[in-house]
Amino acid sequence: MHLDESDIQKYCKNKPHVVLTVATHEKGVDDIRSFGSGGVPVAPESRSYEVGSISKVFLATLLAKCLEEGLLRLDDTVDRHIDLPAGLSYPTILQLATHTSGYADPDLFDSKLDALSYVFSSGKKQSNPFDGFTSDWLIDSILEASRKPRKEGKFQYSNFGYSVLGHALGQAMGKRYFDCITTYIKEDLGLAATSCNSNELCMVHGFKKEADLGNWTWSDDSAYAPAGCICSNASDMLAFAKMNLYGERSHLAYSHQKRVSDKHLDVGLGWMIEKDDDTVWHNGRTGSFHAFLAFSKKRERAVVLLSNCIKYLAWPEDGIALSLIKSE
CA 278 to CA 30: how far, in whole Å? Predict the structure, then answer.
């Protein structure tokens, strides 16, 4: 794999507090590199980053494990596991896991102005806009969404859908989702620097120019936590990528199977799959962080990219990571 230094320098330009970490694996060889302002190489970063929606992949792989164990089925509708009234149209586990439930994301802000004010604020701290929604709100929102017509079967990325999926999975396992995913991460996957709680880890802080925005936190009853609560470091993320690359557990390989075909990509359980390639990936974003994880079995490669200093209207991180895993 070839890491283009000019791409790194361009990305890190005018970001005085950036810590960009790129971790790679190719045919048995691991490499972790970190870069600071201007793309200058620094010591490999061992602290954890917010990985945002890559949390959905951890959820989906735990789901695959539970499917193997018979705790639930892909064609179960969510009311089989969540106490919901009869007579409404509820999505299946498969639809939620592949973003084809038709569930749209409810507004997080009271107005578009409030949303823009949040995005472009320059405050020293930036609260987590997803954390003010509880499990009671989630049940009410499921009922409201299930009373409306939905375009089921069409790919429509949904944080809300994965929040419902996480709640249903927790109910099927007889625990809170937070406890289920924590046990899975620590005991099944053995990832010591990965957690749903940023306060448990030594964290890289997020920055917007000179402003230290700290890190998002998630309450135990946060409805949206399954969609984006996880934090991890490059070493753990690369280890997880390699578990998937080499199929170390049968349920991981099961999660990679194509379930839905969209115009631009195919979709597994949580994973995005390139149509013209065997690259399997997912990205994630929070207030100041961008994360990307990908692997290619035919190339025997895995790539992880972690950044703490993003531009809100641009996503160059995905391009850097995808070009790296596909490089000659």
Answer: 20
- The runs of H, that is alpha helices, within the chain are 5-12, 55-68, 93-97, 112-119, 135-146, 159-173, 177-183, 225-228, 234-245, 250-255, 316-326
Which of 33, 51, 141, 131 minimizes the C-alpha distance to 91? 141
Nearest to 318 by CA among 48, 32, 26, 53: 53
Point out which residues pair with 286 in neighbouring strands. none
Kindly state the tokens that stand for 63: 């789901």
| pTM tops 0.85 | yes
Q: Which residues pair with 325 in a beta bridge?
A: none
Contact between residue 82 and residue 165 where contact means Cβ atoms under 8 Å apart: no
Given a cut of 50, the residues of the chain with pLDDT beneath it are: 115-116, 120, 124
**Cα 309 from Cα 289, distance rounded (Å):** 6
Closest-CA residue to 186 (of 177, 195, 178): 195
Tokens of 162: 């994965």
Q: Which residues contact 34 (CB under 8 A, 6 or more apart)?
A: 19, 20, 21, 22, 41, 42, 43, 44, 45, 234
User: Can you give the CATH number for the domain in which 33 is found?
Assistant: 3.40.710.10
Range of the domain at 245: 5-326
Coil, helix or strand for 98? coil
Per the structure, the count of domains in the chain is 1
Tell me how far apart the alpha carbons of residues 14 and 217 are, in angstroms, rounded to a whole number. Answer: 27
SS3 68: helix
The SS3 call for residue 318 is helix
94-124 pLDDT, tens digit per residue, is 999 999 999 988 776 555 555 445 554 555 4
d(C-alpha 184, C-alpha 17), whole Å: 33
CB 238 within 8 A of CB 32: yes
CA distance 32 to 261: 33
Helices 135-146 & 159-173 angle (0-180, nearest 10) = 120
